[in-house]
Amino acid sequence: MRLLRKLPLFAAIFALLAISFVAPAAALPAECTGPFTIGVSNSFVGSEWRTQMIQNIEDVVAELNAAGISVELVIESADTDVAGQQQQIQNLLNRGVNAIIINPGDQSALNLDLEDAVSQGVVVIAVDQEIGAQGVYNVVIDQTEWARISARWLVHELGGEGDIVLIEGFVGHPANEARMAGATEVFAQYPGINIVGRESGGWDQATGQQVMSDLLASLPNIDGVWTQDGMAFGVLSAVRTANPAEWPVVTGEARSGYLQLWNEILADHPDFRSIGVVNPPGVGADGVRVAMEVLCGGTVDASQLEGPFGNTLYVPIPYAVTAEDFASYFEQFGGFPASYTLDGFITPEQAAGFMGGM
Prior knowledge:
Layout: E1 36-42, H1 48-66, E2 71-77, H2 82-94, E3 99-103, H3 111-119, E4 123-127, E5 137-140, H4 143-157, E6 162-168, H5 174-188, E7 193-200, H6 205-218, E8 224-226, H7 231-242, E9 249-250, H8 256-268, E10 275-277, H9 283-295, E11 312-314, E12 320-322, H10 326-333, H11 348-353
Parallel strand pairs: 1-2, 1-3, 3-4, 4-5, 5-11, 6-7, 6-8, 8-9
Antiparallel strand pairs: 10-12
């Protein structure tokens, strides 16, 4: 039987940062007008998050052009494997790009291709996940800490005891592996937390729903569910359909559709609680901002490089939606399209702050 939330309520983890795009000319040197060509390599299009990421990139490039900095954008985006993404990189090099913003589909298989790009003088920025290619900079949130936040919340909600299941994304994917490391690290600190099931939902809503339905059928006494991203909507939908006598505590996502479902459930289950930690698609635009600083003569401050490969510039995890502030976030974002992910961006000044001597 689940311990009923005996620990203090999990306070709001972050305050909402009022971060939005502002005129980029404020941070870039006035004499930096281009022209520049920036390429984008994206190997997964079956995700609204990636669509929003690319839209953010397009928006910041439009902003640069409006500020008098000539930037052409070349996008290579398709569902593809490692070989396909290698071809995307080659296509961008053939176009003579000055910089590449890449959301890598593999942690190491693209390294030689990207190192070749760097050797040709191309600025390469990996976003969303960290890779170790020499000369490449990662501009990402800390995915491991991102997972720890919701894992800690789940432990608090369960009072430090209970049987939980984990529903992860693509096994072997860099971001998923970092997240699973962070979540399991937290759970390992609590002997009363028992992981009784672990399955992949492939970051897919329908798959997540089916996986959760199967787990509920085979493990009738689940106390908590730790999941991530688009799967969370499917997971919560499965719980709602099954409507068990004791609802498990479910981690969620910071997406409008999930907030809408959360709000509907509160009508019948006013004690329902969840959390959505923002994983901002805005990192794509952040990558563009950092690339532009380098293209305009900046040098990355080596003392700020972190991460497992020593080449990462971490941008802030913007905020988390919890039960305590749910009403406020729902008022702001509940009317957005269901696919919209709550977002965050660094400012041009923050991008400039990653440079040495500036």
